[in-house]
């Protein structure tokens, strides 16, 4: 597509439920990143994919968080047993060459109640 | 010490003013540099890349000083529409051969009539 697409745009879930967030990068972009941003805070790196592999998972905050990427394209970020502190905007970005910067999707706003 | 540091502001300036934002980074393996703009409740969008020679795009001028590990953004003739958070971003090459964008926490700009 023309841009990075994320779904859903908004998600409200009950504490303890699992959620799955989806990112569809720009066609041809091999690098894909997940960040999250809590209200009024800066961007926090979560995970990076190059193709289908994830050389850097260092930002995942706990083992409740996992991500995968298939076919070098779509990525899903899964949060198990959601907690209220997981509430944030989850942003996906992609790039064909990181040297030139990334393009962000519009994010998924997750609210855990 | 944070890898990328910015003055959080806010900078409150009148229309037509010139305003400058500064940013310092700590990792000498930084390869490329950017300024992103983020509007309230929106995703970050690439404003401009920053090159060693300095670069200009209309009212915006960005400069990089690698020796001092310092980046700047100058906005001339501020418009109301320039009100946003400006994110200093550094692309770092890691030993595993992958890149990662590190974001500053952002500088808030408010332009008033």
3D structure, described in words:
The complex is a heterodimer of chains A (113) and B (113). With 113 residues, chain A is mostly beta strands. Chain A is built from no helices and eleven strands. In chain A, strands 2, 4, 5, 6, 9, 10 and 11 form a seven-stranded mixed beta sheet that branches. In chain A, strands 1-3-8-7 form a four-stranded antiparallel beta sheet, with no helix packed on it. Chain A is globular, with a radius of gyration of 13 Å. The termini of chain A are far apart. Chain B contains no helices and eleven strands. In chain B, strands 2, 4, 5, 9, 10 and 11 form a six-stranded mixed beta sheet that branches. A five-stranded antiparallel beta sheet of chain B has the order 1-3-8-7-6, with no helix packed on it. Chain B is mainly β and 113 residues long.
Task: Considering the chains and any ligands shown, give keywords for the structure.
heterodimer, A: about 110 residues, mainly beta, 7-stranded mixed β-sheet, 4-stranded antiparallel β-sheet, about 0% helix, globular, B: about 110 residues, 6-stranded mixed β-sheet, 5-stranded antiparallel β-sheet, 11 strands, about 60% strand
Short description:
With 113 residues, chain A is mainly beta. Chain A has no helices and 11 strands. In chain A, strands 2, 4, 5, 6, 9, 10 and 11 form a 7-stranded mixed beta sheet that branches. In chain A, strands 1-3-8-7 form a 4-stranded antiparallel beta sheet, with no helix packed on it.
The helix count of chain A comes to 0
What's the N-to-C terminus distance of chain B? Answer: 37 Å
How would you classify the helix and strand content of chain A by structural class?
mainly beta
Q: What does the oligomeric state look like here?
A: heterodimer
Helices of chain B, by number, come to 0
- What is the radius of gyration of chain B computed over CA atoms, rounded to a whole number of angstroms? 14 Å
Question: How many beta-strand elements of chain B?
Answer: 11
The fraction of residues assigned to DSSP E strands of chain A is over 45%
How big a fraction of the residues of chain B is strand?
A: over 45%
């Amino acid at each position: 597509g023309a841009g990075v697409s994320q779904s859903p745009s908004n998600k409200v879930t009950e504490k303890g439920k699992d959620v799955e967030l989806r990112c569809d990068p720009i066609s041809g972009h091999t690098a894909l990143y997940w960040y999250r941003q809590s209200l009024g805070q800066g961007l926090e790196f979560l995970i990076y994919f190059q193709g289908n592999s994830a050389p850097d998972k260092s930002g995942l905050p706990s083992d409740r968080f996992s991500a995968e990427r298939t076919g070098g394209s779509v990525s899903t970020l899964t949060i198990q047993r959601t907690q209220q502190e997981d509430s944030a905007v989850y942003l996906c970005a992609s790039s064909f060459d990181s040297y030139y910067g990334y393009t962000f999707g519009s994010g998924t706003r997750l609210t855990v109640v | 010490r944070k890898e990328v540091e910015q003055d959080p502001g806010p900078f409150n300036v009148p229309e037509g003013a010139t305003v400058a934002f500064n940013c310092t980074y700590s990792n000498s393996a930084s390869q490329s540099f950017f300024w992103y703009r983020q509007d309230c409740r929106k995703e970050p969008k690439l404003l401009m890349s920053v090159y060693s020679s300095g670069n200009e795009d209309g009212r915006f001028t960005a400069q990089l000083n690698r020796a001092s590990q310092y980046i700047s953004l100058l906005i001339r003739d501020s418009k109301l529409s320039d009100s946003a958070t400006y994110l200093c971003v550094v692309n770092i090459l890691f030993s595993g051969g992958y890149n990662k964008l590190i974001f500053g926490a952002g500088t808030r700009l408010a332009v008033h009539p």
